[in-house]
Amino acid sequence: MNEAPSGRRERKRQQTADAIVQAARELFAEQGYAATTMEQIAARADVAKGTLYAHFPVKEAILGDYMRAELRAGEAQLAPRLAAAADTRARLDTLFACAAAWLEPHRELLGPHIAYRLGHLRIDAPDPAQRSGLDAIIGRILGAGQAAGEVRGDIAVPVLAAQLEFAYLSVLLRWLAAPPGFDLPAALTEMLSLFLDGAGVRDER
């Protein structure tokens, strides 16, 4: 059966977008995000500037696709470790430790990425395509935790996942604003403890 014209167009469009993101990935690695221009990305991807801007209006939009692709690749590699983790806390700790390990050498990318996402946040009509995908990973872990009786079940998983994702974001913003020496993995561990255990003083009697 022949492929419909609309299907061919969409496949071609996706191939072009993928080539642009790959070109940007290479340039970011070679010379840094700030030094990379849209013109350089177009030249590396071998596309006209008009084609580039038709797919991505600004460099930050390319960065968003790049970050989402990295998360998808990281999730596939992380899956066996999450499956082997003993419980919900261990799975979340593994997730955030791996996130920190990736973010620390890519710190330059994080500020522009967060600023662009927050600047284009639509509270009234959220676009699932613009989400990072982290909320879905967290949601699956918390959902399994609820099923195992390790996470309270009176709050919906999407609400819990959103709360934890924003707590994670708050740590990243602190890290970006902090002087050298800020311990990102330790701060994420502390954040997770606060989320799972609460801030109240426990009566050990």
From TrEMBL:
GO terms for molecular function: DNA-binding transcription factor activity; transcription cis-regulatory region binding. The keyword Transcription applies. Residues 14-74 form the HTH tetR-type domain. Pfam families: TetR_N. Residues 37-56 bind DNA. PROSITE patterns: HTH_TETR_2. It comes from the Bacteria. The keyword Transcription applies. Keywords: DNA-binding, Transcription, Transcription regulation. This is TetR family transcriptional regulator. It comes from Plasticicumulans lactativorans.
